Amino acid sequence: MAMHFDITDFRLFINVAETSSLTRGAERSFLSVPATSNRIKNLEDNLGMKLLERSPQGVTLTNAGKTYLQHARVILSQLEMLTGDLQEYAVGLKGQLRLLANTTAITEYLPPVVGEYLRTHPDVHIDMRERLSDDIVRSIRDGSADLGIVSGSVVTEGLQSVPFVSSRLTIIAPHGHPLLERGEVFFKEALSYAFVSLLEGSAIHVFLSRAAAALHIPLTIRVQVASSDAIFRMVEAGAGIAIVPQAGFERLKGQQKLGACTLLDPWAVRTFQLCAQDFDGLSAFARDFADSLIDWYRTPADGEPG
């Protein structure tokens, strides 16, 4: 039986699969729900197999659907690379770079690199999203992202990865706080105090919640805010303590009336790695970004060495 494949079907199916919903998949694809449902049905009829199981709660993938999704992502990724590589010979580089990173990378290490990169690549759009390191690795493996920045002990087996900077998490508190007098503490000891945190769902919030759960001690959060700078303001005001990247504290300490103490847990020191399925197989503009990031932090005059 001859099977016919369509790029529009690939994109539509990916949107439906990622949202587990025909309705949300249709919205992402700028189609009506009836048109989306009809297109998926025609796709299944053409292939002679079911790709989705429908229920009032949404849709789930059949085994055939999982295989179709995997290859659809790979094919669209290859087309993106082809477009980028060919357009290098036209007028500049054009395309979309899909980048995943955790909270610290996005707030502390990516801004100067992204700013410089976009100035030299005005026709490239960066789709940058915050994720946990484990989720980033899965997305790189299945082809739903081009580049990922992970940290800690996450396993990147099967991917190519390059370490580019090291970071330490530190505890910040208002001047006069008991923790500051000690200078060095374990996370377990800090859990007796209330915290200021980013919103639920942020990578750092999930990470600290899991670390507290592993100790069987509740993480008491008094205030949740939407930005790292807001954390510093709330801690300064006495709303609680917080765990932040050392780089963030160094960047803002001159503006705030607060201090920091060392977090002694091994996971507090993290090496950041840039990872991809295959760096040589990236589009030209994605390779340019990877090179820019690595070069920035390998050059002491341009980036923070650690």
Automatic annotation (TrEMBL):
<feature type="domain" description="HTH lysR-type">
    <location>
        <begin position="5"/>
        <end position="62"/>
    </location>
</feature>
<keyword id="KW-0805">Transcription regulation</keyword>
<dbReference type="InterPro" id="IPR000847">
    <property type="entry name" value="LysR_HTH_N"/>
</dbReference>
<protein>
    <submittedName>
        <fullName>LysR family transcriptional regulator</fullName>
    </submittedName>
</protein>
<dbReference type="InterPro" id="IPR036390">
    <property type="entry name" value="WH_DNA-bd_sf"/>
</dbReference>
<dbReference type="InterPro" id="IPR005119">
    <property type="entry name" value="LysR_subst-bd"/>
</dbReference>
<dbReference type="GO" id="GO:0003700">
    <property type="term" value="F:DNA-binding transcription factor activity"/>
</dbReference>
<keyword id="KW-0804">Transcription</keyword>
<dbReference type="InterPro" id="IPR036388">
    <property type="entry name" value="WH-like_DNA-bd_sf"/>
</dbReference>
<keyword id="KW-0238">DNA-binding</keyword>
<dbReference type="InterPro" id="IPR050950">
    <property type="entry name" value="HTH-type_LysR_regulators"/>
</dbReference>
<dbReference type="Pfam" id="PF00126">
    <property type="entry name" value="HTH_1"/>
</dbReference>
<comment type="similarity">
    <text>Belongs to the LysR transcriptional regulatory family.</text>
</comment>
<dbReference type="GO" id="GO:0005829">
    <property type="term" value="C:cytosol"/>
</dbReference>
<dbReference type="Pfam" id="PF03466">
    <property type="entry name" value="LysR_substrate"/>
</dbReference>
<dbReference type="GO" id="GO:0003677">
    <property type="term" value="F:DNA binding"/>
</dbReference>
